[in-house]
């Protein structure tokens, strides 16, 4: 699946959208992404919608909502795809398969989530459905609780990592200031992220509020085309690799601090692309919790096992570091509307590779990596993107 390109995109600001529901959020990006590609809705051959839902919104069957955004979408095939927090990437993969099979020239992929309508504890419960409920269903604090367990295990093996986690949080909050689509554009600073306070209490295990991604509403969309078609279009970002690796769901069946599914996905992606980590100009990675970003440094091979803290504390992953990670601010400050996240990561990386990332721009960006994860390293998607021209 290496001969497809992203040729247009759209993105709502992420945040609390009091007056929007899933339908109106979809409406803000679907036709806009098509227009951004220089196309009209009639040109689209297939629609894929990524949304986790699982109780966030009472409206089921959401793929059909996309058709309501233009009369010219009527009678197009439209399907909803779900793979926990990697739902956005799962939707993109569905589209890539359509293009690779020659079943369509243009596929519209929309990712959306409306999370903030539920009260806090309900949000936690809804997210926890993406864990193995028979063993993990009683963990307090929703998915923060799951990653609190993972952080504790890592701390037991490699020592207290609170300094490194605060450095990751501070980096991503600083990056988010430059992202016009980010939910929290505030440079919180290292000291605030490092210190337990009324404004930054413990949430789960050693994880404080600043170690957690945000609860968000939002949508992102992109248009996929085959490479030959894309070559004649205004802008085109090519998939050098698009890899999916799934691992077991129960934490008890894995050495969870290794994030082995993530490691496998990166290895396969580099083999598919003919690249290595050193070739990448930037990475957008799934920092649902700061401990996840630290484990991902190790799983992607940036540092040896147990040394993730080095990359954070020595500034390797800052925007001007040797490998900028999450120049968009990541899920930490950009926000994490579950079904939209994977699509957003591809949009942000496409902006970087076409020189359209404005204040977020990483200088001379030529190759971008993306890691989007469902559950605790259960569904692992890595993409490697480059400008087509
Ligand atoms: C499931 C999968 O497949 C894999 C995954 O990706 S798992 C990730 C899924 N997502 C999550 O679990 C979301 C995690 N985050 C949260 O649940 C919540 O943000 C939280 C529990 C950490 C905080 O929520 P809360 O305590 O209710 O905070 P809330 O009352 O909304 O806000 C209080 C203040 O903290 C700030 N705040 C809220 N969340 C914050 C966060 N994550 N980081 C920094 N600041 C935050 C607010 O802006 C607000 O600031 P002001 O007082 O200055 O206005």
UniProtKB/TrEMBL annotation:
This is Acetyl-CoA C-acetyltransferase. Residues 252-386 form the Thiolase C-terminal domain. Keywords: Transferase. Pfam families: Thiolase_C_1 (PF22691), Thiolase_N (PF00108). GO terms for molecular function: acetyl-CoA C-acyltransferase activity. SUPFAM superfamilies: Thiolase-like. It comes from Tistlia consotensis USBA 355. Residues 5-183 form the Thiolase N-terminal domain.
């Amino acid at each position: 699946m290496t001969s497809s390109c992203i040729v247009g995109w759209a993105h709502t600001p992420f945040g609390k959208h009091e007056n929007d529901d899933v339908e109106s959020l979809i409406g803000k990006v679907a036709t806009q992404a098509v227009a951004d590609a220089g196309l009209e809705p009639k040109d689209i051959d297939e629609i894929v919608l990524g949304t986790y839902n699982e109780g966030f919104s009472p409206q089921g069957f959401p793929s059909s909502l996309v058709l309501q955004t233009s009369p010219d979408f009527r009678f197009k095939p439209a399907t909803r795809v779900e793979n926990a927090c990697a739902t956005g990437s799962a939707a993109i993969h569905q589209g890539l398969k359509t293009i690779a099979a020659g079943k369509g020239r243009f596929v519209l992929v929309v990712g959306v989530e409306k999370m903030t309508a539920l009260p806090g504890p309900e949000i936690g419960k809804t997210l926890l459905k993406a864990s193995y409920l028979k063993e993990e269903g009683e963990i307090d604090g929703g998915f923060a609780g799951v990653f609190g367990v993972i952080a504790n295990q890592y701390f037991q093996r490699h020592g207290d990592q609170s300094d490194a986690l605060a450095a990751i949080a501070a980096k991503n909050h600083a990056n988010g200031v430059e992202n016009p689509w980010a939910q929290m554009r505030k440079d919180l600073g290292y000291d605030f992220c490092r210190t337990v306070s009324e404004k930054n209490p413990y949430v789960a295990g050693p994880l404080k509020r600043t170690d957690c991604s945000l609860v968000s509403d939002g949508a992102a969309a992109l248009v996929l085309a085959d490479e030959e078609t894309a070559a004649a279009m205004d802008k085109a970002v090519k998939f050098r690799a698009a890899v999916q690796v799934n691992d077991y769901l129960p934490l008890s069946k894995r050495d969870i601090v290794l994030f082995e599914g993530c490691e496998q996905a990166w290895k396969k992606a580099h083999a598919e692309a003919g690249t290595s980590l050193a070739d990448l100009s930037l990475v957008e990675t799934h920092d649902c919790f700061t401990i996840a970003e630290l484990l991902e440094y190790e799983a992607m091979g940036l540092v040896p096992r147990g040394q993730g803290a080095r990359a954070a504390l020595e500034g390797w992953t800052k925007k001007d570091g040797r490998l900028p990670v999450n120049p968009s601010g990541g899920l930490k400050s950009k926000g994490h509307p579950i079904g939209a996240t994977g699509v957003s990561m591809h949009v942000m990386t496409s902006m970087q590779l076409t020189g359209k990332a404005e204040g977020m721009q990483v200088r001379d960006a030529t190759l971008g990596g993306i890691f989007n994860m469902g559950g605790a390293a259960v569904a692992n998607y890595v993409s490697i993107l480059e400008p087509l021209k």
